[in-house]
Amino acid sequence: RFSQTKKNDADWLLTQTAVRPLVGIVCGSGLGGLADLLKDQVAFNYRDIPNFPQSTVHGHAGRLVFGTLKGRPCVCMQGRFHLYEGYPIQKITLPMRIFKMLGVKTVILTNAAGGLNQDFKVGDIMIIKDHLNMPGFAGNNPLTGPNDERFGVRFPCMSDAYDRELLQMAMDVGSELGYSDFLREGVYCALGGPSFETIAECRMLHKLGVDAVGMSTVHEVIVARHCGMRVFALSLITNQAVMDYDSEEKANHNEVLQTAKQRAQQLEKLVSTMVIRMKHNNNYS
Ligand SMILES: O=P(O)(O)O[C@@H]1C[C@H](O)[C@@H](CO)O1
Ligand SMILES: Nc1nc2[nH]cnc2c(=O)[nH]1
């Protein structure tokens, strides 16, 4: 029945627009401007899409935007769902299955995150090369429950979750755009939120090899990879995680949105250049 519901959502969306997207984009906190790059837009408020959850977080507009980027058909989630909003984990990742049913081949996920790597600065863009799924360690995985074989296998591999060719493409495009000074790569860790981390938690995550910490993305990545879509993801380092008891810094959502605003244009340029350069037969040359 769950699967039928998803099919209905996808069918409904397909009847509303002629765009058949090959690329699906998810905008992180304050990064919704990405959707505004799309031409010939057809946009839906989440509240108008059957069975779709609603955005409840400031900086997540709650619109699904179809359109093209230099002729490449795309769909963009202007706002995502988070565990802390109270939705079941299968519900927050439902859009990935809808992307799949719309024909999406490549998913691009963005997020705002706190920097743990001491070499990172606020405003850096970190290309995600791997993740730690903390809610997953506690049994909260979006693939929990009966496996729908039509989407993918029971035990999907995650060692190849982040496409290495797209990671290399991001580095190449970033260097051509003159972004090398603030382009990094690293490991992202998702926590449940909504509280930010304590100092002890930041120290622990740093010791575990985490470069940036956030509250999203990995659940979407798992579902996207389960159904065979190619994944590229990046974090905007919007704040430095507090590691020191003498620090006066306090993580807050306003700072997150403020940093996102300052770096949004460059991040959008990086993503849009990549989309235009992507070969949709899964080859990058
Ligand atoms: O959707 P993302 O991961 O960009 O949102 C981050 C995590 C929290 O939702 C919020 C904290 O400021 O930003
Ligand atoms: N968990 C977490 N999420 C964030 N999103 C943006 N900044 C942060 C942060 O410092 N911690």
UniProtKB/TrEMBL annotation:
Residues given in the record as phosphate binding sites: S29, H60, R80, F81, H82, A112, S216
Gene Ontology cellular component terms for the protein in this record: cytoplasm
Annotated ranges, domain Nucleoside phosphorylase: 23-275
Secretion signal, residue range per the UniProt entry: none
A molecular function GO annotation: purine-nucleoside phosphorylase activity
GO BP annotations, alphabetical order: purine ribonucleoside salvage
E.C. designation(s): 2.4.2.1
Catalytically driven reaction(s): 2'-deoxyguanosine + phosphate = 2-deoxy-alpha-D-ribose 1-phosphate + guanine; inosine + phosphate = alpha-D-ribose 1-phosphate + hypoxanthine; 2'-deoxyinosine + phosphate = 2-deoxy-alpha-D-ribose 1-phosphate + hypoxanthine; guanosine + phosphate = alpha-D-ribose 1-phosphate + guanine
Enzyme class: transferase
Keywords, in A-Z order: Glycosyltransferase, Purine salvage, Transferase
InterPro entries: Nucleoside_phosphorylase_d (IPR000845), Nucleoside_phosphorylase_sf (IPR035994), Pur_Nuc_Pase_Ino/Guo-sp (IPR011270), Purine_phosphorylase (IPR011268)
Binding-site residues for a purine D-ribonucleoside, renumbered to this chain: E197, N239
Function: Catalyzes the phosphorolytic breakdown of the N-glycosidic bond in the beta-(deoxy)ribonucleoside molecules, with the formation of the corresponding free purine bases and pentose-1-phosphate. Preferentially acts on 6-oxopurine nucleosides including inosine and guanosine.
Protein name as catalogued: Purine nucleoside phosphorylase
Originating organism: Electrophorus electricus
